[in-house]
Write a structure and sequence with these properties.
Two copies of one chain form a homodimer. The first copy, chain A, has 221 residues and is α/β, with parallel strands linked by helices. Chain A has eight helices and nine strands. A four-stranded antiparallel β-sheet of chain A has the order 4-5-6-7, with helices on one face. A three-stranded parallel β-sheet of chain A has the order 1-2-3, sandwiched between helices. A two-stranded antiparallel sheet of chain A has the order 8-9. In chain A, β8 and β9 form a beta hairpin. Chain A binds a DNA duplex (30 and 30 nucleotides) through residues 150-152, 184, 186-187, 189-194, 196, 203-204, 211, 213-214.
Chain lengths: 221, 221
DNA sequence: CGGATGCATGACAGTTCTGTGACAAAGACC
DNA sequence: GGTCTTTGTCACAGAACTGTCATGCATCCG
């Protein structure tokens, strides 16, 4: 944050830290630019009216080398200033006094936009030893051979495989696989049993899908 | 632009066209969403108070499938609304009345920031074993011989071929091939059946377009 | 050691899923 | 106007799947 007014700087810093951000503050553009070069921040907040290098120049200077999102926070609400700041390279412009919640929401929106393509896509394949689960393809391969599972079995297996190494309770499984909020937990047992018939070499002594007595089931990593 | 007030819609459209933008306007979220799916715009402007699907829902719906920048233009200046809209996925929020110059500057800032248009350019030909699908040419070749498909069959095949190896649910197919958001899933079955008559050597035991019971259909890679 | 609890499994009846043939409406073409 | 295609809806039959239950074994606890 580059802001020359001590009180505002302190207030904003505290407010943002409250929202979970880590803030580094500077009172002048020179100081701020240096800081950003030394240790780049994820977002830069900048006031327009600064002693020395002013906000507009500061933004241009930032933009020369850096793609960091820049948010202007200014007391001036003149359209001309807003346009100038945006043209200089700012990503957003807020007029003081700013509502912390709004600032925070706008920062999140910017981060969303700036971040490299979201890593939300689940991997194509979950491998557990010689068992390969492909959620998107709707396939399960055991030692390279494709298995025929029913929908329930498949979803159950996906859920367990996705959390390999963790115990999942019958309740959790009912919720995630069946989307039941209540229901008979025996139901899970039955389907685990059916699944074992297909994925275990020896269903009597399960290796891949084990019971954790009193807690639930898990697939060892 | 999605805006239900005729006068505002017209005024904004003219103002933006003056700035050099090409504008497509819709009066309802339904209409706008459909338009965006048909022919994606570079930026979406949306009002919050809309008849039917409201602005928030509309943003969420857009975000489900699309990474397009979304700007909210609303008469409501309540922080709560602003935060909600941004959380829903909007990139910016302007309070009416908006200064055209500011809007224009903010749109440019967003375009600058927007990810380069996804590489959706599809290859000329999708090859799946001895089946070749040419989406652009509108042809399908089976062992070099051209098949005669109806339009629906062709689009269905393209959709499945494009996602070869992935299961597509009947719902997904209805949405992508028929652009239905609801509808009878049996319809998909029937057309899959008809398509099989043409692309399978032995329609009784499908090899190229297989059923994944409980999940949908897919073409194996 | 007896009782209680947790778990596995086989049987079964009801439900759901899928492929298909028939058919009418809508559209394309001449 | 007439003909041929294409589409969407429906009904039906067989196959596959699901949830429930009863039974029996294993494990835990006092």
């Amino acid at each position: 944050m580059i802001e020359d007014d001590d009180r505002i700087r302190l207030a904003l810093t505290l407010a943002l830290e409250d929202e979970g951000y880590t803030v580094r503050a500077a009172a002048t553009a020179e100081e701020g630019l240096l800081g950003q070069r030394r240790e780049p921040a994820d977002i830069v907040l900048v006031d327009l009216m600064l002693p020395g290098i002013d906000g507009f120049q500061c933004i241009r200077e930032l933009r020369r080398t850096d793609d960091v999102p820049v948010v202007v926070i200014s007391a001036r609400d003149d359209t001309h200033d807003i346009v100038a700041a945006l043209e200089a390279g700012a990503d957003d412009y807020l007029v003081k006094p700013v509502a912390t919640k709004e600032l925070s929401a706008r920062l999140r929106a910017l981060q969303r936009r700036a971040r490299p393509p979201a890593q939300t896509a689940q991997p194509d394949e979950l491998a557990l030893g010689d068992l390969a689960v492909r959620p998107l393809a709707g396939e399960v391969l055991l030692r390279g051979e494709q298995l025929t599972l029913t929908r329930t079995e498949f979803r159950l297996l996906c859920e367990l495989a996705e959390h390999a190494g963790q115990v999942l309770s019958r309740q959790q499984l009912l919720q995630r696989v069946w989307e039941y909020d209540f229901g008979d937990e025996r139901l899970v047992d039955v389907h685990v049993g059916r699944l074992r018939q297909k994925i275990e070499d020896n269903p009597g002594t399960p290796q891949r899908l084990v019971t954790v007595r009193g807690l639930g089931y898990k697939m060892p990593r």
